[in-house]
Amino acid sequence: MTLHERLGRLDAAREVQGYQTQPRQMRAAAPGKVGELRLGFSLRDGRSVLHDLYRVAPLLVQQALYWDEAMPELPICPIISVGGGVLQGDRYRIDISVEAGACAQVTSQSANRIHQMDANYASQHQTVRVASGAYLEYLPDFTIPYKGSRFINETEVTVAEDATVLYGEMLMSGRKHHHEDERFGLDLLSMAVSVRRPGGRELFAEKLLIEKGDPTVNFAAVMRGFDAFASIMCLTPPDVAARIRERFGTLFPAEERRAIAGVSRLPNGAGLMLRVVGVESYDVRQEVRRFWRIVREEARGRTLPEEFLWR
Q1: Cα(232)–Cα(273) distance, rounded to whole angstroms?
Q2: By the 8 A CB rule, do 149 and 186 touch?
Q3: Which of 96, 138, 198, 205 is the Cys-Cys partner for 194 at CB 3.0 to 4.6 Å?
Q4: DSSP assignment, residue 65?
């Protein structure tokens, strides 16, 4: 499926039909507003390398880095947005593939800021393919939807039965320290993910949809009292998933609930799902890193290095 066919499918989504006006500055999907990124990892001479790199601004990856002291064989690619955030009319596509036996980590340079919009919307389509025996950590930083922002994202993951993928989406309620109206002041946030085997068998799909004025987002047992959220999938063989689940446990403190976290089994033996809600981003990040460390130790026999002080 071509870039325009994938993005066109998002254009047809029900939730964006009310946001079809064209920006006055530059039409939607105009040259300079369509970002593409293709990353391909493989084993070369016994080492995992970034063998395929294609990029179109405003998305950018410079090269693979090897700075993880706990897993020095891991190529790490931070995604850089040279546009300063996601703007109205932007259309992005990210394609990541990890060949058999290889490993990789893809992250982002900083938080993904969805700027305020007065016309149209922004969309992103992602495909992730992980072959037999491969290992991928795809953990972008927090997405921060500004007041009046509109963003739709679709992710398609294809993973072999003996591979492991750690894929996460972390969200803030908005720029809550900027103004009280920023908290869930967005117009639209739609994030869908589907997972299948290389032969085409569908394992599961889920969708997070928040629309303007939706009162349920602030219900008890949803986001009341919390402003940060993480949904982290660990797609891994059942025996690995069982060991991870046994070690992680559930975080539900009796007092001063800065964060609540728990894992559940995914359908069709696909792995585990971690859900975390927290007061601030660092409360959620702490639980995500705890899960991340256990996943890496059980799936690869390596631990997670200490977080940088500047994080």
Answers
A1: 6
A2: yes
A3: 205
A4: B
User: Distance (Å, rounded) from C-alpha 123 to C-alpha 188?
Assistant: 11
Q: Kindly provide the b/e burial profile for residues 195-233, where b requires at least 16 CB atoms within 10 angstroms of the residue's own CB.
A: bbeeeeeebbeeeeebeeeeeebeeeeebeebbbbbbbb
Could you give the C-alpha distances from 37 to 106, 113, 130, 157, 230, in angstroms and in order?
A: 12, 18, 17, 16, 24
Q: pTM for the complete prediction? A: 0.94
What's the pLDDT at 264?
Answer: 96
**How far apart, in whole angstroms, are the C-alpha atoms of residue 184 and residue 86?**
17
- Strands 47-56 and 34-44 turn out to be antiparallel
Predicted pLDDT at 213:
87
The closest alpha carbon to 185, from 158, 209, 212, 167, belongs to 212
Low-confidence ranges of the chain (pLDDT < 50): none
Q: What pLDDT score was predicted for residue 1?
A: 65
Q: Collapsing DSSP states into helix, strand and coil, what is residue 11? A: helix
Q: Which two tokens stand for residue 196?
A: 């299948």
Say what the pLDDT of residue 9 is.
82
Structure tokens at 142: 């927090």
> Which residues, 6+ apart, have CB-to-CB distance to 5 below 8 Å?
none
pLDDT at 310: 62
